[in-house]
Ionotropic glutamate receptor C-terminal domain-containing protein (Branchiostoma floridae), 389 residues
Amino acid sequence: MAMGLYITTERERVIDLSKPLMEEHVEMLVKKLPMMDQADWWALTYGIMSTEVWFMIGVSFVLVAIVTFVIIRVSPYESRAYSAEVGEASRLSTFGHSLWICFSAMSWQGVDYSPRSFSGRFLFVFFFGFIVWTIILCTGSIAGFFLTNPAAVSVRSPVESWDDLAATDGIRPVLVSQGGSERFFKESKVPMYRRIYDKAIKVSSSEEGLKRARLGVAAYICMSSIARYHSNQKPCDLMSIHDAQGIVGRRSMGIGLPIGSPLRTEVSLAILQLREDGTIHRLYHKWTARQGQCANAEFSGPSAKQQQPALHYHQLGVRDMLPIFVELVVAAILSLCIMGAEVVWDKRRSKVTVMASLSGSTQIDDDITLCALVMISSPVCTEVDCVTR
């Protein structure tokens, strides 16, 4: 009689196997990442947005400041407003003042002067919208952090699924040579599992796989009972991860008997009885969870995503901020176009005003010339009479 044999077609041909004693599947052991809690204010403050998003916000700040500076210096309506209301156009039309206007808008503070032209106001309407939406996204992301139950805080993992393991290059899979896990990935027809096998590191023993996993550079792939046992043993730096359904590499384990053994029926009935009354389930969790040496031993077993929820918030990425950033860039371009239209319109109005002024001056000159001619031709006509005429 042989205990704990995986039921396979090869073994069925040479021995008799009992009813399945239990079922197992493939899991991976990875090193735990440091836990982030609510006291990690640095990551909470600056990690809420990715580096690319911080760069986009900085670019938007400088972009709006530059466009504001150009509008203030070029738009005739801005220069007239400065002269009429402040009288210090040279001081307020500097690039530093434009930066100060943008900073005050981003920090929701008032400034001593704001754009007066239509192009400047058009730009700042969209800039205020950009600021409001950025604050809304940040508030929603950080609210998830504070509303998460602290009791559910758990450690994080560098990979959280088989898809992550197949896609990443930072964590290498580790398989024991000639083992059941290696055979499953080697014979699998699923492309994802084939990618895992192709880049896997082959080791000769389970101890070597655990050593590589504890270094944080590999994920040791083994059967579920082995993974859950070692994840609950000191130094408690490993965690087991598998798919939510537990179907990857699922196998049944039974008891092997000689072919034709009369004990096969009795052993199978005894196994069914132990499974029905929960004895096998209690013994399994006794040795894999409750007898563990780690504080989170009771969570060992189901998927890490279900039983070990990590306290985290959604980090804002480029995809979240790109629409409002593009909207701000388009608004900046349109504001420059509006400024150009303002310049053209002001020049046309100035030209019409000058022409009207010149026309009035010419009429006065003609009247004076006519009066002088009348005085010369008629000596009896006085200067007063000329003016009266």
Remarks:
- Residues 149 and 311 are 8 Å apart (CA to CA).
- The radius of gyration is 40 Å.
